[in-house]
Amino acid sequence: MTLKDDLLVEFEEWSGFVDRIAPQDWNVSLGEGKWTIHDVVCHIYLWDKYFLEEAIKPISEGQPLTLRHLDYNEFNRKAVEAGRKLTKPELIELTRQFRSSIVTEIRDQEPSKFTEEYVDADGNKFSVESYLKDFIWHDRHHMKQIEDRISKSSLDQH
Questions:
Q1: Does the global pTM surpass 0.85?
Q2: Is the per-residue pLDDT at 40 higher than 90?
Q3: Count of the separate structural domains present in the chain
Protein backbone atom coordinates (compact mmCIF):
# COMPACT_ATOMS: atom_id res chain seq x y z
CA MET A 1 0.00 0.00 0.00
CA THR A 2 1.09 3.56 -0.63
CA LEU A 3 1.17 6.40 1.88
CA LYS A 4 -1.98 7.74 0.22
CA ASP A 5 -3.77 4.40 0.71
CA ASP A 6 -2.60 4.16 4.33
CA LEU A 7 -3.78 7.69 5.12
CA LEU A 8 -7.15 7.11 3.47
CA VAL A 9 -7.68 3.99 5.58
CA GLU A 10 -6.87 5.99 8.72
CA PHE A 11 -9.08 8.87 7.56
CA GLU A 12 -12.00 6.46 7.11
CA GLU A 13 -11.75 5.33 10.75
CA TRP A 14 -13.87 8.29 11.87
CA SER A 15 -17.01 6.96 10.17
CA GLY A 16 -16.67 3.56 11.83
CA PHE A 17 -16.06 5.22 15.17
CA VAL A 18 -19.23 7.33 14.84
CA ASP A 19 -21.22 4.20 13.97
CA ARG A 20 -20.11 2.61 17.27
CA ILE A 21 -21.28 5.45 19.53
CA ALA A 22 -24.15 4.06 21.58
CA PRO A 23 -27.50 5.91 21.38
CA GLN A 24 -27.42 6.84 25.07
CA ASP A 25 -24.01 8.52 24.67
CA TRP A 26 -24.81 11.10 21.98
CA ASN A 27 -25.83 13.78 24.47
CA VAL A 28 -22.95 13.17 26.87
CA SER A 29 -20.92 16.34 27.40
CA LEU A 30 -17.14 16.25 27.08
CA GLY A 31 -17.01 18.22 30.31
CA GLU A 32 -18.61 21.09 32.12
CA GLY A 33 -19.43 23.82 29.59
CA LYS A 34 -18.06 21.65 26.74
CA TRP A 35 -19.66 20.23 23.63
CA THR A 36 -21.71 17.05 23.60
CA ILE A 37 -20.63 14.08 21.50
CA HIS A 38 -23.37 15.05 19.03
CA ASP A 39 -21.80 18.53 18.77
CA VAL A 40 -18.34 17.06 18.11
CA VAL A 41 -19.63 14.80 15.35
CA CYS A 42 -21.43 17.72 13.72
CA HIS A 43 -18.32 19.88 13.98
CA ILE A 44 -16.26 17.28 12.08
CA TYR A 45 -19.00 16.64 9.51
CA LEU A 46 -19.18 20.35 8.64
CA TRP A 47 -15.39 20.64 8.36
CA ASP A 48 -15.52 17.64 6.00
CA LYS A 49 -18.21 19.36 3.94
CA TYR A 50 -16.19 22.59 3.83
CA PHE A 51 -12.94 20.92 2.74
CA LEU A 52 -14.70 18.72 0.18
CA GLU A 53 -16.40 21.69 -1.48
CA GLU A 54 -13.61 24.26 -1.16
CA ALA A 55 -10.47 22.17 -1.73
CA ILE A 56 -10.82 18.47 -2.56
CA LYS A 57 -13.41 18.73 -5.37
CA PRO A 58 -11.71 21.76 -6.96
CA ILE A 59 -8.41 19.81 -7.01
CA SER A 60 -10.17 16.86 -8.67
CA GLU A 61 -11.75 19.17 -11.24
CA GLY A 62 -8.61 21.21 -11.92
CA GLN A 63 -10.26 24.34 -10.52
CA PRO A 64 -8.82 26.97 -8.16
CA LEU A 65 -9.24 26.30 -4.46
CA THR A 66 -11.81 28.50 -2.73
CA LEU A 67 -10.62 27.37 0.70
CA ARG A 68 -10.00 30.22 3.14
CA HIS A 69 -8.59 30.29 6.64
CA LEU A 70 -11.76 30.93 8.60
CA ASP A 71 -12.38 32.12 12.12
CA TYR A 72 -12.38 28.62 13.63
CA ASN A 73 -14.33 29.62 16.71
CA GLU A 74 -17.11 31.19 14.63
CA PHE A 75 -17.21 28.22 12.21
CA ASN A 76 -17.37 25.79 15.12
CA ARG A 77 -20.08 27.80 16.90
CA LYS A 78 -22.21 27.78 13.74
CA ALA A 79 -21.52 24.07 13.20
CA VAL A 80 -22.75 23.18 16.67
CA GLU A 81 -25.80 25.40 16.24
CA ALA A 82 -26.64 23.78 12.88
CA GLY A 83 -26.05 20.32 14.32
CA ARG A 84 -28.65 20.79 17.00
CA LYS A 85 -31.27 20.79 14.24
CA LEU A 86 -30.14 17.36 13.03
CA THR A 87 -31.29 14.06 14.45
CA LYS A 88 -28.72 11.42 15.29
CA PRO A 89 -29.59 9.31 12.19
CA GLU A 90 -29.39 12.40 9.94
CA LEU A 91 -26.02 13.37 11.39
CA ILE A 92 -24.63 9.85 11.05
CA GLU A 93 -25.73 9.73 7.41
CA LEU A 94 -24.22 13.14 6.62
CA THR A 95 -21.01 12.18 8.42
CA ARG A 96 -20.71 8.99 6.36
CA GLN A 97 -21.68 10.73 3.13
CA PHE A 98 -19.14 13.56 3.30
CA ARG A 99 -16.29 11.46 4.67
CA SER A 100 -16.91 8.85 1.98
CA SER A 101 -17.05 11.54 -0.72
CA ILE A 102 -13.69 12.94 0.37
CA VAL A 103 -12.12 9.47 0.34
CA THR A 104 -13.55 8.68 -3.10
CA GLU A 105 -12.42 12.01 -4.56
CA ILE A 106 -8.88 11.61 -3.24
CA ARG A 107 -8.67 7.94 -4.21
CA ASP A 108 -9.74 8.81 -7.77
CA GLN A 109 -7.33 11.73 -8.18
CA GLU A 110 -4.18 11.33 -10.24
CA PRO A 111 -1.32 10.27 -7.92
CA SER A 112 0.57 13.54 -8.51
CA LYS A 113 -2.30 15.53 -6.97
CA PHE A 114 -1.69 13.88 -3.60
CA THR A 115 1.62 15.64 -2.90
CA GLU A 116 1.27 18.67 -5.16
CA GLU A 117 1.09 22.02 -3.36
CA TYR A 118 -1.88 24.18 -4.28
CA VAL A 119 -2.60 27.75 -3.32
CA ASP A 120 -5.83 28.43 -1.44
CA ALA A 121 -7.97 31.55 -1.76
CA ASP A 122 -5.88 33.30 0.91
CA GLY A 123 -2.60 32.54 -0.87
CA ASN A 124 -1.57 29.77 1.56
CA LYS A 125 -0.17 26.42 0.52
CA PHE A 126 -2.44 23.36 0.66
CA SER A 127 -1.71 19.72 -0.12
CA VAL A 128 -3.99 16.72 0.08
CA GLU A 129 -1.31 14.78 1.97
CA SER A 130 -0.99 17.47 4.67
CA TYR A 131 -4.76 17.84 4.89
CA LEU A 132 -5.21 14.12 5.56
CA LYS A 133 -2.44 14.04 8.16
CA ASP A 134 -3.87 17.10 9.95
CA PHE A 135 -7.41 15.79 10.01
CA ILE A 136 -6.44 12.28 11.06
CA TRP A 137 -4.78 13.94 14.06
CA HIS A 138 -7.91 16.08 14.57
CA ASP A 139 -10.22 13.03 14.38
CA ARG A 140 -8.10 11.09 16.84
CA HIS A 141 -8.02 14.02 19.25
CA HIS A 142 -11.83 14.01 19.35
CA MET A 143 -12.05 10.22 19.40
CA LYS A 144 -9.88 10.19 22.53
CA GLN A 145 -12.04 12.88 24.14
CA ILE A 146 -15.15 10.81 23.42
CA GLU A 147 -13.55 7.55 24.61
CA ASP A 148 -12.48 9.27 27.83
CA ARG A 149 -16.10 10.30 28.53
CA ILE A 150 -17.87 7.05 27.71
CA SER A 151 -16.94 3.55 28.61
CA LYS A 152 -14.91 1.55 26.12
CA SER A 153 -17.44 -1.27 26.55
CA SER A 154 -20.16 1.10 25.36
CA LEU A 155 -18.27 1.65 22.10
CA ASP A 156 -17.48 -2.06 21.73
CA GLN A 157 -21.09 -3.18 22.27
CA HIS A 158 -22.62 -0.99 19.59
A1: yes
A2: yes
A3: 1
